[in-house]
Specification:
- With 140 residues, the protein is mainly β.
- Helix content is 0%, strand content 18%.
- The strands form two sheets. The chain has a three-stranded antiparallel β-sheet, with no helix packed on it. A two-stranded antiparallel sheet has the order 3-4.
Length: 140
């Protein structure tokens, strides 16, 4: 997480330290994953997988799927994902074809912005999007 150069306060509930025996440990390997790895060109990826299903849940209407939002461009409907502080977007990809594959490089999640409305003037960390991976569970 990049918090910038300002001063922040962090409350820690739990802290764990392991004792390492310097006589039996190997040399430090350093950081294994770059903090901000460079993003390769999209054309360098051999696989391009679109979202197979989506859902938009609004906290005010938890039993309703709001994935029917769209915009009209040149007389055609363009499906949109609408996001604000009360909405959670769930995206599903069918990655079954990769179930036996081994990771061999980078991946890229692309979310293309159609329009972006912000508060003026901009406020720090206001309007950011948090991405979370849901592992396992009911695929439906």
């Amino acid at each position: 997480m990049d918090w910038g150069m300002e001063k922040y306060r962090v409350d820690i509930d739990y802290f764990k330290v392991n004792v390492v025996n310097i006589d039996s440990i190997g040399p430090d390997s350093g950081v294994q994953v770059p903090y901000h790895p460079p993003i390769p060109a999209i054309t360098s990826f051999s696989q391009h997988i679109g979202v197979s299903d989506d859902c938009i849940v609004d906290a005010a209407y938890p039993d309703m799927n709001f994935n029917g939002w769209c915009a009209t461009e040149n007389g055609k409907y363009k499906k949109l994902l609408i996001l604000d502080a009360s909405k959670t977007i769930i995206l599903h990809w069918d990655l079954q074809q990769f179930s036996k594959a081994q990771v061999n490089g980078s991946g890229l999640l692309e979310l293309t912005t159609h329009t972006n409305q912000r508060m003026c003037p901009k406020r720090k960390d206001f309007g950011l999007v948090r991405v979370v991976e849901i592992m396992g569970g009911d695929p439906n």
